[in-house]
Design brief:
Largest sheet: 7 strands, mixed
Oligomer: single chain
Pfam families: Acetyltransf_1
GO molecular function: acyltransferase activity, transferring groups other than amino-acyl groups
Shape: globular
CATH topology of one domain: Aminopeptidase
Protein name: GNAT family N-acetyltransferase
CATH class of one domain: Alpha Beta
InterPro entries: Acyl_CoA_acyltransferase, Bact_Acetyltransf, GNAT_dom
Number of strands: 7
CATH superfamily of one domain: Gcn5-related N-acetyltransferase (GNAT)
Organism: Paenibacillus dendrobii
């Protein structure tokens, strides 16, 4: 697809997007990119885990072509300044800048919501995604060594994060 020739809208997800988002998940989250393929058992199950307005959806001329989901990593009040994100772009729209636009939109959305940090997880066997996240300003914060067994091999899970604004610097008193 030639995304630059189409009208692109990034908006909050709606209930009508469920099937398109499920289809993207089935195409993108495979044994190469996730600990196991993501196949939703039902529309209801998808909507329970990904309710409307829990994702920013990219729509090109009326076709859902990607998303970035966001959620609080824990239910703790002291962690409400963080969103954990996940991003998927339909293979037909990859490598056209859509992922970068979605990450930029997610950063703007999170900042407007008062969030200070975005974090995500990626498998060490996905160097393209790691490079993409670095290009978008994410840095590695941690690594769980041999966290998953994928196709008979142990792989690391990398945790990456991006801070949305300069945090205050505190002097350490000794």
């Amino acid at each position: 697809m030639k995304l630059h020739q189409q009208t692109l809208t990034i908006r909050l997800s709606q209930i009508k997007d469920a099937q398109s988002l499920m289809d993207i998940d089935a195409l993108v989250w495979t044994e190469r990119t996730a600990p196991e393929p993501l196949l939703w058992p039902s529309r209801e199950d998808f909507l329970q885990h990904c309710p409307p307005a829990s994702q920013l959806v990219a729509e090109a001329d009326g076709i859902v072509c990607g998303y970035v989901g966001f959620r609080h990593p824990t239910g703790l009040a002291g962690n409400r300044h963080v969103y954990e994100i996940n991003i998927a772009v339909h293979p037909a729209y990859q490598r056209e800048g859509l992922g970068t636009r979605l990450i930029r939109a997610a950063k703007n959305w999170a900042a407007e919501e008062g969030k200070l940090k975005l974090k995500l997880r990626v498998l060490s066997t996905n160097p393209g995604a790691i490079a993409f996240y670095r290009k978008c300003g994410f840095v590695e914060e941690g690594r769980f060594m041999e966290e998953y067994q994928v196709e008979g091999k142990y792989v690391d899970e990398i945790w990456m994060a991006c801070f949305l604004e300069e945090r205050p610097k505190f002097d350490i008193l000794v």
